[in-house]
Amino acid sequence: MRAVLDANVLFPTILREILTDLAQAGLYDALWSDRILEEWHRAAARIGPDAAGVAGAEIAMLRLRFPQAVQAADGQAVIDLDFPDPADRHVVEAALAGGASLIVTANLRDFPQRMMAGLGLRALHPDAFLLDLMAQDRGAVIAALHTARDRAEAAGGAMTMGEMLKRCRLPRLARAVKG
Q1: Which helix (H) or strand (E) holds 45?
Q2: How far apart are CA 176 and CA 179, in angstroms?
Q3: What are the φ and ψ backbone dihedral angles of 73, each rounded to 5 degrees?
């Protein structure tokens, strides 16, 4: 399975680490475009120069970790559709260029289900995506969650698993892990 990760799921550190650890574990192929990475960097820059610097370093590490992930989003995939947010067209272009079947995004309203189906794509919230991956390999997802929590604690952010998942806006996954 190939999935494009939108900037809004790459920007939050803990969520990005969970998603990329699962890609590295082989549960799916993570894809993005240069434009998606630039969008993440711009979002960090709005916080301040330190955040922009950290994002730049994280993006560089992500490029090294996943050298095959970057897909074209240059308008070559002619899509004659009116998106709710035309600025998100590049995310769909990256998915089509990479042969992805999924776009993982927190902004589902920008990727209407009917429109995506017509392109052979689905947009999924990271909560639903991670639940799907958990159905595939519960052990790998639990391990990725523990690793993410351990990293957060090492960085000075001690929290329970439930607190971490709430912070990541993954309520359904939190219930599945708890149960």
Answers
A1: helix 34-47
A2: 5
A3: -140, 55
DSSP structural state of residue 6: P
Report the alpha-carbon distance of residue 71 to residue 31 in Å, rounded: 7
pLDDT in tens, 118-141: 999 999 999 999 999 999 999 999
Per-residue pLDDT reduced to its tens digit, 4-60: 999 999 999 999 999 999 999 999 999 999 999 999 999 999 999 998 999 999 999
All residues at 6 or more sequence positions from 110 whose CB lies less than 8 Å from its CB, including other chains: 83, 84, 85, 88, 123
For residue 123, the SS3 value is strand
Q: In this model, does residue 156 exceed pLDDT 90?
A: no
C-alpha distances in angstroms, 115 versus 1, 84, 109?
A: 20, 10, 11
The CATH architecture that domain 2-178 belongs to is 3-Layer(aba) Sandwich (3.40)
pLDDT tens digits, residue range 67-80? 999 997 766 555 66
Count of beta carbons in the 10 Å neighbourhood of residue 149:
21
Report the C-alpha gap between 110 and 123 in whole angstroms. 9
